[in-house]
Amino acid sequence: MQDGVMRAWLESSQLAGGNSAYIEALFEAYLDDPTSVSDEWRAFFKSLPDVDGATDIKHSQIREQFREMAKNKLKQSSSSSAPAPDQKQVRVLQLINAYRFRGHQHAKLDPLGLWQQEQVPDLSLAHHDLSKDDYDTEFNVGSLAVGQETMKLGDIHQALEKIYCGSVGAEYMHIVSTEEKRWIQQRLESVLGTPSFSKDERQLILKALTAADGLEKYLGSKFPGAKRFSLEGGDSLIPLLKALINRAGEQGSKEVVIGMAHRGRLNVLVNVLGKKPQDLFDEFAGKHAEGKGSGDVKYHMGFSSDFETPGGNIHLALAFNPSHLEIVNPVVMGSVRARMDRLQDPEGAKVLPITIHGDAAIAGQGVVQETFNMSQTRAFQVGGSVRIVINNQVGFTTSKREDSRSTQYCTDIAKMVQAPIFHVNADDPEAVVFVTQLALDYRNTFKRDVVIDLVCYRRHGHNEADEPSATQPLMYQQIKQHPVPRELYAQRLVEHKAVDADQAQRFIDDYRDALDRGEVVVDEYRPMKAHSSDWSPYIGNDWDVDYDSAISRDELQALGEKICDYPDSFQLQSRVAKVYSERLKMANGDKQADWGFAETLAYATLVDKGVHIRLTGQDSGRGTFFHRHAVLHNQDDASVYMPLNNLRDGQGQIEIYDSVLSEEAVVAFEYGYATAEPHALVMWEAQFGDFVNGAQVVIDQFLSSGEQKWGRLCGLTLLLPHGYEGQGPEHSSARLERFLQLSADHNWSVCVPTTPAQVFHMIRRQHLRPVRRPLIVMTPKSLLRHPLAVSGMDELADGVFQNAIGEIDDIDAKKVKRVVLCSGKVYYDLLAQRREREQNDVAIIRIEQLYPFPAEEVAEIMKDYQHVKDFVWCQEEPQNQGVWYNSQHHFMAAIPEGAKLTYAGRAASAAPAVGYLSEHNKQQQQLVDDALTIK
């Protein structure tokens, strides 16, 4: 603002004393967001001494300066004209603000003292035109929550150093919410960085550290050189977790789900969850129970137990996870959401997720960002999670920050959701417990994620066989000389007379004796009661187990009419209205059912019986190809309505969410949900089947092998649009070959249904059959509206899913010279071409379930073709993809002895499909001709 304009503005009545409250409110708004006030006010506030850049000074503490200006409206608000006391008052408030913003950069976080943090000018007195000469001057402390309104500058400075530059470095000023910032300030500042613990509480912390240290030393001496991913250096994780669980119990939590990587996992299993040490020792010795599948290494294994807290027992579940470290986090969130739904706990008050990260992994793995991004969305929120980073300051062998990440802290990714981050020195266990309690209280108050950065070190290499000094010589010189956390804390308690040396030694001796006995060493451990859904009906069943699928035609018609019903006041988009008009005809039998109607009707039959269904995907409400329309959008007011949730009172509910644009984290979340809730039908739909590539790690390491490795059952269904319609390499193939390559041990079913009746029965079978294994579905695109891909209501009411379908045309089997086997959309291309040719010497057999291969059903169909010697497998995919290479042994076993099996399809290709429509059409015609033409 020009000087003349500023003078005129100041001469106005704006700064009159009666406006002081209004001015103070504007000033706070300016500090939170300078753009929220007018240009004039912004220029005025900016002219205050050093105000520019400050974002959290409480305005009421410079009211005296405003009042002084009000007495003389011509006086400019500048450093040259404002009274010195007022200038310094403002600068003291700016100093407080600077510590809140940047104090963490001077905090004593590194137990080894190796961190070279840059000096922050904002934290010096001189930067604010203050000095030690002002130490005895009394100033208003503003919003500094120290319990008094004024303090000497020396005391203020000392308090700020204790609060923000001690063992805790708090990052929270990036949070937009003033309420949340004020809440954190109150909790941090009121204790002046010195939390108070009773003698008994301190002894419990020491016992936990003794257990953490004792187990590692015991394992190191009993199994020297064995890989265990020791917790040594990060021992404070054990008192942290026990404090966290205890406080969660006090506040009403009933279940805690923990996800963590390798570092410290064995220690957490024994010293927190209560796994028997003898069981762990047996695993080190190579012993295992028979009949438990392939198994997995001990630092991937999960565990469940009950833990006594002052608020009652809490059920603990440590999730199984592979070496792809961070992928377990969305799995944990999905498991938590399932438990919340079961407990009717929409805010997460009864279920707490805890995820434990490595410093390199949380910064380096993209699934962390995806999981943070999901944290506040309708489909995936869990009421906030407590995220703990075991910050070894080195990732495998990478310790240079400029090699491991592009941010100052490994936790900076959390700022994307404005999560507060509490860095804490792991050698100060009382500070660790303090921030743990603070973090949980924040999560439970605001239902948002919070991060604890446990800054520690790794006493050994990445594993116990490594030699870390080869790559981190200076760090490991320091580590060798550095006392363990238990020793440091015991010495501290002896000095404070909280324990004596003999008592501290007894803790060590008692713990070692307990390990020798091999029994549970966790005092809070309690025998586990049933907390999760009952899995017993699904254990040990194979695919051919009987189940009741009966449903009457009348019941189907009634439900068909209900799913077409919506309020009269609801204005549908014209194309959607036409879809619903056609569906009503299908329900009444006046028109054959299409795919969208049959699929929706299958859901209706299940929710009508009380089943809970969960369907997520990037376009699941309407369906990518405009076929589902289960969620209706009012064209007048954008309100939504779901007929499936309005069938009758007391019905089950279906949740359909258009998800965040993620595959990896979302599929992992749904996997976690399905592993925690067998009574729900859980489904994920890819926008295009190809996009499931982004979730390949979930498919490889959880979905396909979780039962073999860990004994974890899971009924997750993947709906993957697949089919060659000339849409190019990335919109044709769901990579069917990958799922077939991973198929073994009856680990899942892979289906390619070709009719509405088939999808109806397939969906119902997935839930009604007492088997909980994944279902992989190659769903169609063009078949959604194909004139031949229709079914009558009788087909929906009668029968079950057919794993294989024989010839449907009236062809004399005795005249057949060639049998074409196929799967999916190409069937209709073959059928149409054969009919056009009026060809009656080729039969077409559809394989609707590719795995487990339906050998018995195919053998039954083949009885009519034992005389045929010419068999062809026809597919749309290139020869090196699709079904051919992975399933031809099944086909060879199914055809008559002496018969020949050949291939009709695209030539092998590095890409899934061509990008030119003309070339696609040429290839498609050629493969159909090759399949039907008898040479």
From TrEMBL:
UniProt keywords, alphabetically: Oxidoreductase, Thiamine pyrophosphate
Signal peptide feature range: none
CDD domains the UniProt entry points to: TPP_E1_OGDC_like
Gene Ontology biological-process annotations: tricarboxylic acid cycle
A GO MF label: oxoglutarate dehydrogenase (succinyl-transferring) activity
Keyword Oxidoreductase among record annotations: yes
E.C. number: 1.2.4.2
Ranges where the Transketolase-like pyrimidine-binding domain occurs: 593-786
Cofactor(s) named in the record: thiamine diphosphate
Cross-referenced SMART domains: Transket_pyr
One GO CC annotation: cytosol
One Pfam family this sequence matches: Transket_pyr
Similarity-based family: Belongs to the alpha-ketoglutarate dehydrogenase family.
PANTHER family: 2-OXOADIPATE DEHYDROGENASE COMPLEX COMPONENT E1 (PTHR23152:SF4), 2-OXOGLUTARATE DEHYDROGENASE (PTHR23152)
Functional description taken from the UniProt entry: E1 component of the 2-oxoglutarate dehydrogenase (OGDH) complex which catalyzes the decarboxylation of 2-oxoglutarate, the first step in the conversion of 2-oxoglutarate to succinyl-CoA and CO(2).
Name recorded for this polypeptide: 2-oxoglutarate dehydrogenase E1 component
Organism of derivation: Idiomarina xiamenensis 10-D-4
Gene behind the chain: sucA
